[in-house]
Amino acid sequence: MSTAVATTLEEFFTDRLDRAGEDEARERVEELLGALEDGTVRAATRGEHGDWQAHAWVKRGILAAFRLSETVELDWPGGAVDRSLVPARRLGLGDGVRIVPGGTSVRRGAHLAAGVVVMPPSYVNVGGHVGAGSMVDSHVLVGSCAQVGEGVHLSTGVQLGGVLEPVGARPVVVEDGAFVGAQCGLYEGVVVRAGAVLAPGVSLTSGTTIYDLVTETELRGELPAGAVVVPGSRPARGAWAEAQGLSLYAPVVVKYRDGSTDAATVLEDALR
């Protein structure tokens, strides 16, 4: 975020947007969307102590793009109607990514780094960031402003929730080398740290209690680096619930991944 472009855009969307004329605002919005696409600007960045900070001014700029847009018909297979400043991107060989045919859409203002593969049909929304060498498998949603690191595997049906408002809210973050199993759902700004492994069907929000069997602690809002988490359950409270044999969803950390251990291997071992 230290480039001259980022500094100029931050100043504009922090202090001048409300006073700017429509032509200037549109010009700055276009610059912001381009900077998001090339990775010069991100909707959230990691601080030196590992904390992830959302950049409210980026979200203000994205919201301005919708406000300043018109609803138009777009030239897209099957037809499309959307806001004029945030259409689907058209990617080419120069982008260094593979977009396999079959219904995938990457929206304006989304970043795909070199080496990313997107299987159909998937969707990457405005402000989303997918790092180098990551796999976005079929039926995956990378929601608005969600941050995905390098070498991440998002398996079939993974949902990363998006957030534009409130502008200060942290987006979903999946750090480098994480493996997210099929049909997982990550929402409300939850952070999955580097190298973590999620078994199929794990669902996490900022308020979900994660039970760590290794450290014998309860976690919320963040999955530690290298943690291997599987869907679990715990008894529901109360005599009636006990009589009915009811239980509640409870994700469980069953082990921690060794740095040299393949994600698929460690997951297979954990599920046995």
Automatic annotation (TrEMBL):
Q: Which keywords appear in this protein's UniProt record, sorted alphabetically?
A: Repeat, Transferase
Which InterPro entries has this protein been placed in?
Answer: Hexapep, Hexapep_transf_CS, THP_succinylTrfase_dom1, THP_succinylTrfase_N_sf, Trimer_LpxA-like_sf
Specify whether Transferase is a keyword of the entry: yes
Q: Which residues form the Tetrahydrodipicolinate-N-succinyltransferase chain A domain?
A: 7-68
The reply to whether Transferase figures as a keyword in the UniProt entry is yes
Q: Name one Pfam family in it.
A: Hexapep_2
Molecular function GO labels: transferase activity
Q: Gene3D superfamilies given for it? A: Hexapeptide repeat proteins, Tetrahydrodipicolinate-N-succinyltransferase, N-terminal domain
Q: Which family does it belong to?
A: Belongs to the transferase hexapeptide repeat family.
> What name does this protein carry?
2,3,4,5-tetrahydropyridine-2-carboxylate N-succinyltransferase
Q: Which organism is it from?
A: Ornithinimicrobium humiphilum
The organism's lineage is: Bacteria, Bacillati, Actinomycetota, Actinomycetes, Micrococcales
